[in-house]
Here is the input.
Amino acid sequence: MDKYHNEKEEIESVEIDEINEVEETDKTSSKRRKFFTIKKVAVFAGSVFLLLLIGYTTLLYGGKMFVDEKKLFVSSPTTIETEDGEVIWYLYDEYRLPVELEEIPEHVQNAFLAIEDKRFYEHSGVDMRSIGRALYRDIITRSKAEGGSTITQQLAKNLFLTNDKSWYRKVKEGMISLYLEREYTKDEIFEMYLNVIYFGQGRYGIEAAANKYFNKSVQDLNLEEGALLAGMVKGPNGYSPIDHPDKAKNRRDVVLQTMADLQLITVEEAEEAKAKGVNLQITERKTNPAYEAYVDLVIQEVEEEYGLTLEDLKATQYRIRTGINKEAQNIAFEEFQQDTYFPGNSMKNVEGAFLMMEGETGQIAAAIGGRNFKSSQHNRAVARVGQPGSTMKPLAVYGPALETGDYTPFSMLEDEMKEWEGKPVRNANEVYNGEVSLYDALVQSKNTSAVWLLDQIGIDYGKSYLEKMGIEFKDKNLRIALGGLENGITLKEMVQGYRTFTNSGRSIEAHAVIDIHDLYGNEMLTENHDETEVFSEQVAWNMLEIMKAVVTNGTAQSGYYPNELAGKTGSTQHPKHEGQTKDAWFVGMTPEYVTALWMGYDDISEEGNYLFGGSSYPTVMTKTILTKLNEQQSLEATFTKPEKVDALEEPIQLPVITDLKGSHTFGGFKLMKGKLTWAKQEDDRIIYRIYEQKNDKVQKIGEVIGKNEFTIDKFSLFDGSSYYVVPYDTLTDREGEKSNSVKITF
Here is the structure.
């Protein structure tokens, strides 16, 4: 028993010890659980705090991620202007005319504040009251119907966000607003807002809207006008005073009443303004179609020389001064609308282009890119058009030939129909004189002489002068003399080339842009338009004088222009229609301008696409443009010869003498003398050579200069002699046709 009790006591003792150990273990576990619970709560709380801190920091400072600072600086449209600063064209994506807040009347500012954000100067960019109201209405309507946006938020949305009604967009809007409020003053934000808000009809900003709807500046807006514009912000199209005048008036009156409720105006002022109707003075800012080709040319030039694309010009304000002559541009545009200048087998497809360059500066004064040119179309004023035809002769042949020193204007050239490079070369009128002076070959546009002369001076030599003028092409054959270029030529190249003849032999790159200034008034750098010497002054003047004769006596006589004009016609043979014209040209020169006018078809592959009338039509049209311009601007009447240059003599026109008469006289040391007489000529430079023919023997017995009679001292009535006269040209060293023969008898 004792043993049993002892064992039982031992067992109970062990159980008690185990129970104590379990109790101790439970206490320890409980403490551990409590520790871990507190730790979890702390971690959770810390995480939440950290997330809130990150969220708050992101909300407060993260707005910068969505802001493009450049968009905050609102600029006016890029302007293309005349040299004197008159705007002819605007380039923009969104039409704005930014103004400073000080220029906007207080009653106009108050109208916007009253209806859009009455607590603007009190909140920090996000108005919690408005957000609470918006949230309540969103819940009630189960939609995102109410915006609750402040002016700052509207600015953020207009500049940096889309119009979707998502909470994510609202969060970004708030972030941007907080950033803007931190970085800019309230006045700066309000000014930016008033300059970017949309007012319908393509107008952004309060100044552009005032111009559009009331034909006045914002500083001249009265109370009801300012209230009407403020009311449009909520829905520029729905509250348009043009499309919905009643809605616009009702909305305006709401603005006026709100201003009165906020004591920004008196009740009497509000009622007086509400009693007035909506009086609009709508202005339409229409573009002039006459300027489209010129503007297109300017845009191309700006990108090529300044590296500014059209997108750049629309995004940021630039002032581009150009050399446009508005009167010349408008006159040329109107003439290009006349169908009578464009005769062709398919008249609707006949095209044309015109370029006028100021000779001294190289500035392009006018440009027509086609008969019905629209922006971004094929601008023929600068693109390659047809083959230049005979307008290439002065540039590639006659000018370079005179520059060699081996030829003068009165050197004799070959004039015979023959094959060159396997193809026959003919004159347009099929008249061949055997030989002709360089002067007459150019005036009469002899094809045979031009090809012969280019062969004499060398193709490479002729092309080297073209390259100095900025005219380059791959062709390398004698057809260059006739303008048979495979890929045609540009009008710009033509005026550059012909400019050498009016400006002492120097070429300059034709350009439209005078200068460009950026938003801050800084002039942008570009390449200088330096002159390149091509011909000597003497050669240039001689060529100019010859081409004056082309207009007065040669192929460019068609039409009328009262002042001195020089130039060259050109035409090319249609490859599919014998005797019909493919391209027709006239390149003209006045003391002030160089012009190039082309007519033809863009596509000659179509059956029937050929011209009638040849180069007479571009010649007449050019003279008409110049005549009308002269009536408006009094162009210089005559060319001025450079001081160091010798005048070019007029060519001598040898007469055909058919009225030679013979007689005899008595008296003097010798009792009998013979006398020859013929009609008097105006040109006293002509030498008349007198020939005696006796028994098949001919001898020269004398000559006279500028006279119309000759006395034969050694004379006999009985020797059977006959006499004739041959005129002689001292310039070309050539005799003319012999006169009729006479015998002197009783």
The chain is about 40% helix and 15% strand. The radius of gyration is 45 Å. The mean pLDDT is 88.
